[in-house]
Amino acid sequence: TPDSFSDGGKFNKKDKAIKQAINLFNSGANLIDIGGESTRPGSKPINEKLEWSRINKILKLLSKKIPISLDTRKSNIMKKGIQLGVKLINDVSGLEYDPETANVLKLNNTPFVLQHSQGRPEDMQNNPSYKNELLDIYDFFEKKLNFLRSIGINHNKIIIDPGIGFGKNLKHNMNLIKNISIFHSLGFPILVGNSRKRFIKEISKNNDSKLRIGGTVASSIYMMTQGVQILRVHDVNEIMQGIRVYKEIFKKLMPKKYFGTDGIRGAINSKNINGDMFFKFGLASGTFFRSQKKNKQVAVIAKDTRLSGYMLEPALVSGLTSAGMNVYTLGPLPTNGLAILTKTMKANMGIMITASHNPHYDNGLKLFGPDGMKLSNKIEKKIEHLIDQRIEKNLSEPEKLGRVKRLETGTKDYIKILKKNFSEEFNLRGLRIVIDCANGAGYKAGPELLKSLGAKVIAIGVEPNGMNINKNCGSVYPQNIKRAVKKYKAHIGISLDGDADRVIMCDEKSNIIDGDQIIAALASRWKNKKMLKGGVVGTLMSNYGLEQYFKTLNIDFIRANVGDRYVKEKMQKHKFNLGGEQSGHIILGKFATTGDGLLVALEALFALRKGKKASVFFSKFKKIPQILKNIDVKDKNIINKSEIKNSIKIAEKLIKGHGRVLVRKSGTESKIRVMGESENVDLLEKCLNIIAKKIK
Fold it and tell me: Are 272 and 365 in contact (CB under 8 A)?
């Protein structure tokens, strides 16, 4: 057109128009919008003959090459355009200008844009007014959509456009843009034409429409984040560039989609924990690690004792072999056993099928690289990207499929490697030891290891049936070893979790010893033996008493986020060789790359081998009273709500100078964890309840 509000007359010749359309398409546009009548504010209508004469030759040539949207208010122009292969009709009048347009669209079953506009172009900006622009426009769509349904137009043929700049002033436009997501509740794709519009001029004071690209990019990206599906723009290259840069930045900041603080975890046959998704996890992780190593491709799989593991493992194996990985399955084995064997077998990767300390109805997986280390956030995000790709893209050719083999020696190999960390003379003869294996992955390795060193072993939690893992047993239920130590007059009790990467202990007096107390004892011993490097890494949940104890020993103490992977990352960064969590995830950097309950227990037993009592060895500091409330929630993002944040501020203000509170999302369960520490227990309870009541 010669008089459109931007670029008027610049592309109104056939050759120029065709060239520009192809340029826009090649720059990334999905549809090219072509119109022969300007509908800018103040423009006057033209007759049908003139409108068609401006566009018919262009439509004939372009509709065969690229997808075309036709911008027109007239039913006859619509008919002619549809006959030439136009893919979409864009009527800025909301089908109000020509009463026949709805019938034409229905008869031809053609998709169209239903746009809101108050008034006609010639007068629409003459003091537009609304009672409430959001609700008025919403009501317009609701009424119009009901009418279109009543005459038989298919729901999936309609796109809605709130009509930025069509009978709206700056206030109206800004309110629409800010609250554009309200229109999603109508159930139709949203198109917005914000490009170079007057609202940008009014905000930026730039009158030249061609110099409003920055405002167009900013508003386009905002509306994209609000779920707008289609943007109608002039400057395709600039908008695409802005969107790509934004997405790349956001991708670096965004939380992971599948991985939590310790792998992937959830309820069986839920969204992510099912055969279909485990095939995708196998295919994606196999594809990633295959690209990191050019010689023999090997993946090693172990699992705990959950019944669901026998359902998920074949799906995972199928995905891995489809990616060209040769797979060794080890059966039930502690998590660190898998990490160790992944490294010693020079495999590309290791995968542990487990939900750790969770109940039997949950499951998940933990991934390890060729170095036996848990994966970084960066690698997990790359694997997540591969998970969401089309499956066919990563499938191997038939002759490149992987093979599968079961290894029966995994437990023996693991025990052998653990014992090599200690002198050949080391033995446990004369010690009575209770071990609770949580009916989990360590049910064979735990008792066998201790018996092989000469201990008298009282083993509980060693009769897995697929449903009893962690059920009233293991490290989340240490009362078992407390009772058994007392009953059998044992020297020490050891309690593992479902995949044996955690350990909680019990001294000969039946006192429970948590991860903080174990870390304190080992750090003290290692410092005296000059084995401690740098300092110790704890977590946000580590008891304040532990931190104070390390100050008295001049041991550096650093807190990491909760999760043994984050502990390990801090250990590597600061070159420390000891770190862990109150829950019993403890990493002995001198020996292992991840938490290992049996290895930690052996290190403690090595210190007790000459008759030292556990109650003496582990009593290093007085714990500050700590209370933890685990609150079940449907959506963990509830802690971002203003009322929750305010309750946390109130609690922090009350307890300031007397202790601390910490509120965080669980990385593995649908829970919010509210923790506090203070010598004043009554004050602490009051502060935690202020927060907990708001979350509930």
Answer: no
552 φ, ψ (degrees, to nearest 5): -70, -25
Task: Give start and end residues of each alpha helix (H) in 124-212.
Answer: 133-150, 170-178, 198-204
Cα–Cα distance measured from residue 594 to residue 498, given in angstroms and rounded to the nearest whole number: 15
Cβ neighbours of 25 (radius 10 Å)? 18
* Tokens 């984050």 -> residue: 566
Q: Helix (H, G, I), strand (E, B), or coil: what is residue 580?
A: strand
pTM assigned to the model = 0.61
β-pair type (362-368, 503-506): unpaired
**Which token pair is 620?**
């290093």
- Residue 421 contacts residue 599 (beta carbons within 8 Å): yes
- In this prediction, residue 106 carries a pLDDT of 95
Question: Which of 224, 246, 502, 260 has the alpha carbon at shortest distance from 377?
Answer: 260
| Separation between Cα atoms, residue 655 and residue 659, nearest integer Å | 6
User: Cα separation of 211 and 196, whole Å?
Assistant: 8
Active site residues: 356
Digit-coded pLDDT (tens) for 298-337: 999 999 999 999 999 999 999 999 999 999 999 999 999 9
Predicted confidence at residue 294, as pLDDT, reads 63
Instruction: Retrieve residue 661's tokens.
Output: 């509170």
Rounded CA-CA distance 454/452 in Å is 6
Each residue's pLDDT tens digit, 63-111? 888 999 999 999 999 999 999 999 999 999 999 999 999 999 999 999 9
